[in-house]
Automatic annotation (TrEMBL):
The keyword Transferase applies. It holds the Pfam family polyprenyl_synt. It is an enzyme of class 2 (transferase). One of its GO terms (biological process) is terpenoid biosynthetic process. Keywords: Isoprene biosynthesis, Magnesium, Metal-binding, Transferase. GO terms for cellular component: cytoplasm. Belongs to the FPP/GGPP synthase family. It catalyses: isopentenyl diphosphate + (2E)-geranyl diphosphate = (2E,6E)-farnesyl diphosphate + diphosphate. Its EC number is 2.5.1.10. This is Farnesyl diphosphate synthase.
Amino acid sequence: MFDDILREKIEYINKGLNEFLSLTDRPEVLFEAMKYSVFAGGKRLRPVLCISACELVGGNKEDALPVACAIEFIHTYSLIHDDLPAMDNDDLRRGKPTNHKVYGEAIAILAGDALLNYGFEVLIQQALNSNKSQNILKAADEIARAAGCRGMIAGQVVDLLSENKEIGEYDLKFMHDHKTGALIKASILAGAIIGGADAATLKKLSSYAEYLGFAFQVKDDILDVQGDEAKLGKDIGSDIANGKSTFVSVLGLQRSVELVNELTEKAISILNDFGNKGEFLKSLTKYMAERDS
Ligand code: GRG
């Protein structure tokens, strides 16, 4: 049941992404590079969260779709840039060659820039063409702040400055809250705003999003360490993985697993206030904690 609903939502989002990216213009390589990374196999967690939060508060998926797609464009830009030689210098993303490996560094930078810009173009167009433009602007404001200099970019800078250093739990939490937590939270709040949520509901969903985002990050570190251990065939749980501190290196594997479970329970308990309407997001919260990629 949950799997079917999730698949349906992902198909709906992929259709939307496809339509928004059906624009072709010159130069072809730019549009090709943008599409390459958007369709390279992401889980679509942020757009699913956005649409589900909209439905949770009584809104409909059609209104949330452009916002959900804009968020996925911005997320994809961040991954393209994160993989660049000047940042993480990764050859593979989602099991496929990274954008700069396929198109070269200059085109990858520009494809990332183009996706970031196009995300905001989609949001502005939506606001201009809607009779609920105020809500769309409020959602766009959440997304802009989460992606910007006090959000994801600040987290990325702290990440770069922390390379090859041991950092404590406080700094690690700051880094992840900004780098990944902020856009996850904005996805949920933007969806709820589009769905017409009142201030009290937004406050509740804000707490839900913080627990969910934190659990997502700790789980991501667990998956990274387990992936590296499988590759190296040895226990590296207490080392700094790839020159970076992780929740596993700071807290240990066992405490990290416990923490994911505790945060997931707290997130789910907030959804109890939404009755039956909260069931899908509850299952998604569990799915995110139990995922293996
Ligand atoms: C370059 C400004 C700038 C920011 C980059 C998001 C980010 C900041 C870097 C990503 C690095 C990373 C792998 C962080 C771990 C958590 C995370 C965001 C994983 C990727 O998100 P998923 O798992 O990705 O939702 P998919 O591929 O499913 O879309």
